[in-house]
Amino acid sequence: MEVAANCSLRVKRPLLDPRFEGYKLSLEPLPCYQLELDAAVAEVKLRDDQYTLEHMHAFGMYNYLHCDSWYQDSVYYVDNLGRIMNLTVMLDTALGKPREVFRLPTDLIAYDNRLCASMHFTSSTWVTLSDGTGRLYLIGTGERGNSASEKWEIMFNEELGNPFIIIHSISLLKAEEHSIATLLLRIEKEELDMKGSGFYVSLEWVTINKKYKDKKKYEITKRNILHGKSVPHYAAIEPDGNGLMIVSYKSFTFVQVGQNLEESKDEDMSEKIKEPLYYWQQTEDDLTVTISLPEDCTKEDIQIQFLPDHVNVVLKGQRFLEGNLYSSIDHESSTWIIKENNSLEISLIKKNEGLTWPELVVGDKEGEFIRDSAQCAAIAERLMHLTSDELNPNPDKGKPPCNAQELEECDIFFEESSSLCRFDGSTLKTTHVVNLGSNQYLFSVIVDPKEMPCFCLRHDVDALLWQPHSSNQDDMWEHIATFNALGYVQASKRDKKFFACAPNYSYAALCECLRRVFIYRQPTPMSTVLYNRKEGRQVGQVAKQQVASLETSDPILGFQATNERLFVLTTKNLFLIKVNTEN
Question: Which residue ranges does the record assign to the CS domain (predicted)?
Fold first, then answer.
């Protein structure tokens, strides 16, 4: 069995600035333009039965504004009339109204349990679209940057079960066929295993295919499903369609391909409630194995063979327990007896007295070990020196375990440890794993639409941007940019809702739930002379922080950053903030 490779992210030291002095608040005004929408954004609020943190992460914090990474400064949203509206900016001073490019065929208001409509810009001529009712659409758009050739047409649509949102998609062109792979996210109710929240997260990897020579319509050729217990921070299909990368707090696994999900649940449940074949206990000198016998089983039906390192138990001609023992026994002194309650009791005498056996038969999982209260008390006593009822019983000793006063509130990271996993598309097994530890996930951004989206992680106080390269098996994740001290700064923004950065890394931005937008620029050379008084040296560069306050009391529903502008969507308005002037 192949084991996933444990990898690490290699930081490029030249991209770090150990002498970074912080952001300087700039009072320079930011040009801000406001567009009133013809119809309100199609916001879908969480229902009473969507009460978990996972529902909030996936649907409550959904970004209703979609940026077309194939065409600069082009954003889309869905309004409550079922129209997909587009705004493409050419000139800030001559903004037009958002225009309708497509209308969803479904009457969304008729569905009670729908989710928000979602979309992903698969290529320069394809869009994957969900209406939030469980139907997937493939849309051929023509060249979206060209108004003469742009025309949105449905090339495929099919009901795929429970409602979902689209989180990623790719387009694959080969000599004889065209296929589109998309990743769908659902939060399903756990019918059998009610531990935790009672819900699990389902990621479905759907491949839709059309062969040119057959002249048939597009059809689904593959559906693979992963299950997990937390909404992934990041999930994307590799550009060649050969794999999948996921950043999540709790791990994901593929359910058996081609197997009915209800059947797999039934099998899992039957495994959980299956009784052990035998029970065993141990002392320092011996082991006792107890087996429940069938009602009509007699002494003549039982055959037991003891060897120094092996045991073989046969009941009524059927091999019941056989295998190599964990350690050696005194096979001549080992015995067995039938008890009054119709159970078979086997006594094995240890050759190495005092040795604790972690298992009876090597590799056998059919039995259950029962530990008695005296053993538990002895183990607890041996571990007593490692524990204490007090948080820090002796803070004045040479090496105190931790000084909590040195931690600031924004340093506390509640998730224990996230991981970055790469799954192979053919074997559906994990091939690479990166334990992210305390490297908190911050946001993702598409730098190059032909590549996978980048993800940004907190490393100490900085925020580091990573570009996945699936083709390079030895070094899959490249450190491409750093936002100095941003990991620390963003942690203090308790009301933040969305986080983004420009594809050219010139600035990062975050917005709160209401009104305020914070912009953090990369360091730029100073036009005037500035001195650091403490160190007595000239400061060559300064990183500016700017704050924009929107003139609205409506909550922010969408947030996107391009190289020149920030787009902020509220229920009834679309705001444009000019961040950079064109070079």
Answer: 273-361
Please give the single-letter amino acid code of residue 487: G
Check if the beta carbon of residue 420 is closer than 8 Å to that of residue 439. no
**Taking Cα atoms as reference points, which of 95, 99, 139, 97 lies closest to residue 117?**
139
Determine the Cα–Cα distance for residues 288 and 348; give it in Å rounded to an integer: 6
Q: Is residue 299 part of a domain?
A: yes
Read off the tokens for 267: 């099998």
Q: Which of 217, 375, 205 is nearest to 284 (CA)?
A: 375
Of 24, 127, 34, the residue nearest 87 (C-alpha): 34
Cβ neighbours of 149 (radius 10 Å): 11
Which residue's entry shows tokens 């001195």?
531
* CATH number of residue 358's parent domain: 2.60.40.790
- Distance from C-alpha of 516 to C-alpha of 518, rounded to nearest angstrom: 7
pTM summary value: 0.73
DSSP 86: E
- Cα 421 to Cα 4, 7, 165, 232, 451: the distances in Å are 9, 10, 21, 11, 18
Count of domains forming the chain: 1
Contact present, 532 and 39 (Cβ < 8 Å): no
Strand partners, 126: 140
Residue 461 CA to residue 459 CA, distance in Å, equals 6
What is the domain range of residue 351?
Answer: 278-365
> From residue 341, how far is each of 220, 299, 516 by CA, in Å?
58, 14, 74
In a domain, residue 300? The reply is: yes
List pLDDT tens digits, range 30-57.
999 999 999 999 999 999 989 898 999 9
Pairing state between β 74-78 and 83-88: antiparallel
Burial of 16 (0-12, 13-18, 19+ CB in 10 A): middle
Summarize the chain as % helix, strand, coil (round to 5). Answer: 10, 45, 45
In a domain, 581, yes or no: no
